[in-house]
Amino acid sequence: MKTLARDKKIMTGVQHRGKGLPSLVDVLCSNGNGIACAMRKTPHDQPLPSRDVVIELSEALRSVLFPGYFGFPDLRVESVPYHVGSTLDRIQHTLEEQIKRGLCFSCQGDMVCLPACDRRSRTITRKFLSRLPDVQKLLITDVRAAFEGDPAASSPDEVIFCYPGLHAITNYRLAHELHKLGVPLIPRMITEHAHSITGVDIHPGAVIGEKFFIDHGTGVVIGETCIIGKGVSLYQGVTLGAKSFKLDEEGNPIKGIPRHPIVEDDVIIYSGATILGRVTIGRGSVIGGNVWLVRSVPPFSRITQAQASEEDYESGSGI
Questions:
Q1: What pTM does this model have?
Q2: Among 182, 193, 169, which Cα is nearest to 56's?
Q3: Is the pLDDT of residue 306 over 80?
Q4: Taking the domains of the chain in order of start, what are their residue ranges?
Q5: Which of 78, 89, 129, 250 has the most Cβ atoms closer than 10 angstroms to its Cβ?
Q6: E strand map for the chain
């Protein structure tokens, strides 16, 4: 009797859950809770960019930029050109499709926009691929900066294989090129993938010069409108962020205005330092660990935590 009662109770529960699923689906797919189904934003019913595919693309691009280091594990010298060529062919077709999806989603136009998005995605993909040699040259300077700047680095190969900072910089440099070409969504997907792995958060809109070195990396944040010169080194936990946002008449944050620091050439910023607002860190300066800075400093400055605590913080009010 107990077994029958138990089985009846289980069946009743299953039936109840089954009856509830249609209404549950309706609630989750409606916009009654403030989250509209993204597909309804595209009247031409185009699929959205795929996060998984974009991640695969970023890894494939790393194998092209550093042939022999990533990608096929048994690659030999004589087969490198074949690997690079076949990988680029796959990247070209896949990236073109993902860019088209992003463009269609962002334009939110009618069916007329599809041919234009298709043509634009092909043009953008060709321009992006043509920039890969320049990206590779920049990354070589980044590898050199890490090897020369870290006594623990036994070889440039170790930097390429192991350093999370270089991984984050690689994804950033790829995403930055797409960002400059006006590609929506995908640049952020590429940098946020690196962010989730390395703990380094670099917005693709930031402008960063050659020989850039991030040591250790975890907790580094570089905002959208940052401008970073050549030969700059950052340690873990550095924030190059913004102060409180300016609001429009309706109380919404104003987008796109310069609000992050400018870091000139050959600056070193040690761990835990926080630099906020559109301030300039002069060439050759050294910013010590855990410094909180909301003002510009002239070239060749040496700012320590003790010095920073003596400054007038009135200009930083409202942070």
A1: 0.86
A2: 193
A3: no
A4: 44-200, 219-319
A5: 129
A6: 201-202, 207-208, 213-214, 221-222, 227-228, 233-234, 239-241, 262-263, 268-269, 274-276, 280-281, 286-287, 292-293, 302-303
- What single letter denotes the amino acid at residue 310? E
Structure token pair of residue 227: 């401008």
The mean pLDDT of 286-295, rounded to a whole number, is: 97
> How far, in Å, CA of 203 to CA of 232, rounded?
17
Is the Cβ–Cβ distance between 272 and 289 less than 8 Å? yes
| CA pair distance 55, 154, nearest whole angstrom | 29
Angle, helices 164-180 vs 51-65, to 10°: value is: 110
Q: How many CB atoms lie within 10 A of CB 113?
A: 18
Burial (CB count <10 Å: 0-12, 13-18, 19+), residue 183:
buried
Structural contact between residues 114 and 45, judged by C-beta atoms closer than 8 angstroms = no
Cβ(288)–Cβ(303) under 8 Å? Answer: yes
236-284 pLDDT tens trace: 999 999 997 778 888 888 887 999 999 999 999 999 999 999 999 999 9
- The residue with greater pLDDT, 10 or 230, is 230
Angle between the 113-130 and 164-180 helix axes, to the nearest 10 degrees? 130
- Is the predicted pLDDT of residue 20 greater than 80, yes or no? no
How are strands ordered across the β-sheet holding 286-287?
Answer: 213-214, 233-234, 268-269, 286-287, 302-303
Q: In b/e form, how buried is each residue of 191-210, taking b as 16+ CB within 10 angstroms?
A: bbbbbeebbbbbbbbbebbb
Contacts of 237 (CB under 8 A, 6+ apart): 218, 219, 220, 271, 272, 273
Phi-psi region of 215 (alpha: psi -120 to 50; beta: other; left: phi over 0): beta
CATH architecture observed for domain 219-319:
3 Solenoid (2.160)
